[in-house]
Amino acid sequence: MAFLWTPRLDVLVVTLIAATTIACGTQAKPAGDAPKAAATAAATATATATAKPAGAVLKPNPDRAVSVDWLAGKLNDPAVVPVDLRTKEKYDAGHIPGAVLLASAAFSQKTGDVSDLAPAAQVAEALSKIGVKPTDAIVFYDDGGSLSATRALWGLDVYGHKDSRVLNGTWTSWEAAKKPVTKDVPTRASTQYAFSGAPNTSIVVTFDQMAKAVGDPSKIVCDSRTADEYTGRDLRAPAKSGGHVPGALNLAYNDAVAKTGEFLPVSELKKLYDNAGIKAQDNQTIFTYCQSGVRAAHAWFVLKYLIGYEKVAVYDGSWEEYGGRTDTKIESSRS
Questions:
Q1: Strand order in 285-289's β-sheet?
Q2: N or C: which end of the chain has fewer CB within 10 A?
Q3: Phi, psi torsion values for 192, nearest 5 degrees
């Protein structure tokens, strides 16, 4: 990982053990039963101590994925800023009224062969140029299954913007619903945007943290690439080795998106990830990764905000970094 601030965060592991209550009768027990009672108590204590952790308490936040109707009703609200992450050509051909154009590259930088989240200053400068204030509600949209939108939202969560969302269904659903479209470019005065406070490193995974996750039962590693990338049949530069992080579970990010562009219903998303084995207990953190961190951010968004797992983090260096090194443990199956 090549963040300039190079954080290291130990993941807090909290194990919740359910207390077992044994209801006893009021009738006095003969003295000879005391050893049996003691043995029963000891067995109960042992069973409680070795019990599996309780399933994670899910806290979904569906407001982070807003509907086209919701956004259409906010077009005259100056504190709601639609941000179009498509190409300039597509933006110029027609966009959501009031939307400002922002290149998704504003959220990325290259460190050698590895794509990383851009420094806070670069992101703040990009937001300043399009006239965004820290108090604005930003609604990102793209036309690629919310890939760019969720990546941008993750970046703002890292740096601390208070209110950012994605348009559920992207530009595709907006157009299909015949919502207003314009070619007019809004006039927004530039701002002096600045992030306050330290970055939220709890949602960022470094290379060292990913390497230590191998064999660690407190971590679940989610590989959001294609099955061919996961097995190693599809090797993409700059990675030198194909395969996956040992123990990683595979579910392609786009399995969570309907053909119409919207995220699947929450119940279907939960079943999808459960069936893939990506089902955390309260003492587990989910690490997501892909090739360059973009699809990983999409999986992070689904797991954290739609399904509702609290402890989810993105390995930004992803396979570009992990598969590009010679000191990593890798599993592959090219047959």
A1: 204-205, 312-315, 285-289, 219-223, 249-250
A2: C
A3: -110, 65
Cβ atoms within 10 Å of 105's Cβ, excluding its own: 13
Of 73, 59, 60, nearest to 137 (Cα)? Answer: 73
Closest to 330 (Cα-Cα) out of 211, 206, 238: 211
CATH entry, 201-322, from 2.60.40.10, 3.40.250.10, 3.40.50.720, 3.40.50.150:
3.40.250.10
Candidates 244, 164, 298, 206; CA nearest to 8 is 206
> Higher-confidence residue: 56 or 25?
56
pLDDT by residue (tens digit) across 282-310? 999 999 999 999 999 999 999 999 999 99
Phi and psi of 223, rounded to 5°? -95, 110
Bridge-based pairing state of the strands 114-117 and 108-111? antiparallel
Q: Is the pLDDT of residue 172 over 60?
A: yes
What is the SS3 assignment for 316?
A: coil
